[in-house]
């Protein structure tokens, strides 16, 4: 026979056990909403179909696309490039610079070109499968996009794949590695994603709309090109066939 006292004790034990049960499956935090704060504008070659943008020291490197117009160029930001190498017969895509050498990938040609970082002279070519879109380097490895939701890690010497993460957002285009984050243009949008390189989780969404005026939009193509300014929290961003580059900060959206 269970007395009222026994029932009360049993209920207390059950309720106490429920209260002590661990909580699992906590949802990750929503991506931080950011916008661009324009600090200054710089000239940009309006004939450059920008596919990659990256600083190495004070030198700004740019890779351009389209067959017959693809190139890699380098020089001071906002000035005519001091060195340029064309890429005849191929459709150039993303670039990245690792000390004395640089890599430039191609869209559907399956070829990556290793270059001398000072002269941009071609050193060798390696092949890969799939499309090439964006490229940057993080923690001793290359990070490459192919237009899907996946970022592929590659060996910086052999270019062989060493792993990947799925971001859960497709159309990932030009990339910029900063610390433990990868910034990615989303093709055909004016949005930039900040991605955790280790997990692929999107930690920030940056609204980069409204940079060009109505008169500049007619001949311009999509936003594409992110270059972190060394030693600062600032970036230079531009787009394909844009007449301007913008030096910006990414700040919280209201």
TrEMBL record:
InterPro entries: QCT. Keywords: Signal, Transferase. SUPFAM superfamilies: Calcium-dependent phosphotriesterase. It comes from the Bacteria. One of its GO terms (molecular function) is glutaminyl-peptide cyclotransferase activity. The keyword Transferase applies. This is Glutaminyl-peptide cyclotransferase. It comes from Amycolatopsis orientalis (Nocardia orientalis).
